[in-house]
Design goal:
By secondary structure, the protein is mainly β. It contains six helices and 38 strands.
Length: 604
Amino acid sequence: MKAKRNLIQILLLCLALLPATVQAQFQFVTNNGAITITDYTGSGGAVTIPSSTNGYPVTGIGDWAFCGTGLTSVTMGTNVTSIGDYAFSWCTGLTGITIPNSVTNIGDNAFYYCTGLTSVTIGTSVTSIGDGAFSLCISLTSVTIGTNVTNIGDRAFYYCTGLTSVTIGTNVTSIGDYAFYDCTGLTAVYFQGNAPSIGSYVFYGDNNVNFYYLANTVVARDRILLDSGWRFELGDPPDVLTNPADTNVTYYPEIPDLTKLDDGSRGSWDPQELTGPNSETYMETIRIDSVAHHVGENVSFVQTNYNDSGTNWQQINLPHDWVVGLPFDPNAAQNHGYKAGISGWTSANTIAWYRHTFTLPANDAGQALWLEFDGVYRNCLVWLNGHILGRNVSGYDSFSFDVTPYANPGGTNVLVVRVDASRFEGWFYEGAGIYRHVWLTSANPVHVAYWGTYVATTVLAGSNATIAVQTMVTNQSGVTTTNGSLTSTILDANSNAVTAVTSNLTLTAGQALVVTQTLAVANANLWSLQTPYLYNLVSTVSNQNVAADVYTTPFGVRMVSINSTDGVFIDGQGVYINGQHVEIQGMCNHQDMAGVGSALPDRL
């Protein structure tokens, strides 16, 4: 009994030491000399929470402390470090709140259903915003989330329909599920740092939101057009003609007929076309690896110091088709335009060289670099700064080469291409040369690979779609293992975020990894022949929480199927797009145009 009386005396003494206003308005507990407010008993209006009382700091606002009271404003003392769960929930008259820099944690549902709250300033020491912390604050218009916040909880700003802008600090690494769900007025989200991990349905229903990445540490992916200022000459140089075995550029055995292999459908079938000495299978065994054999690196035209300003070298811009400029010859191939020397076999007019000298920006140092050719007819060899990059044979596909080891950022670079158009691939006019654009792309060493995304609609129930995404991410850093993430965000045609998903990545040096993700799109705008609606998939690769690469892939939400029992073409099969039967309609449309041949400019 004596001990109990002593405890009561101590509590009464502590109560006596508090100011009358604190005693009258608050219930509290003390712990290790610090005060936590557990309940508010006042009449509402404006309330000031003191920093300390007679040497006892007020450090905590407990769970449910001000729930459902008539507060209109709160001023918190500078010693408050924690705001408990539901601490100010249902304070519908509260209009503004400033959370001091001393606060480190905002509890779950701390300001739930504060429907009159219009503005929130979150102090710089807050590290976590709890689940549902500001959900249903329908009058809230803007929020700035401090630089030390690392986690925004599930439903943190759920159904804040008046919210128009959010600024997210540099250290946020995770945004929980439904965090900004149905914030229908949200138009701008500013990421001061790099893209965080984003949960499910975070921005669902926010149909007008745009995302802005303000971090200045990211070197953006860049794509430079290399169409201007080329030099062109017909024919091989003397050192190729006199020393073919030494240079190896002319050696590339091919099958006799490139137009198609005979599968027997046109009559007799010769198995030698598939397995004999004239077959593609055999040719692959006798060809040499152009890179391993350093093909052509000793040719005069390939040297970086070669003088291509002579009269034989024409100044041209791409796209370029040299056949269209050749004279007519009635003895030449009819179906290839009666052009002199164009007969399907090697002549003086079927071989040509291109050279292009250009300067790379100095800030490309340390970046991954690759060349992209949209189309070359045909059988071309490519060198950069005297190094063989490889060969591309087909005249009808685009191709690329990694030039990171050979490029000279901040200095002069020489690109050389030899084109051999001796052979026909079709029965129609095909032209010759670099007849489409050439690009040089630079990106962070950790990036989405060239043509590295695949997007498909795998399930379609009405207008609700499941989208499967495969993304190849590559680490060309050479020596460093990367721990990062891939965030795939779907944007609608107005650049509004629809949904997003994040996956963690670990890539060793030189590794390429295919990441498979699934996203759900509710009430999707379906692609059709009449309304070819396109979404954009934005792939953001982060390297240890620093955004390294951003790559965009357009796609349509559609499912294509073939029904073998109901249709309009071969064997009674029909094509269906999103369940709707369509008739296949087409035309024979060749790629050449009078006056320009195969080198169609963009305007055509």
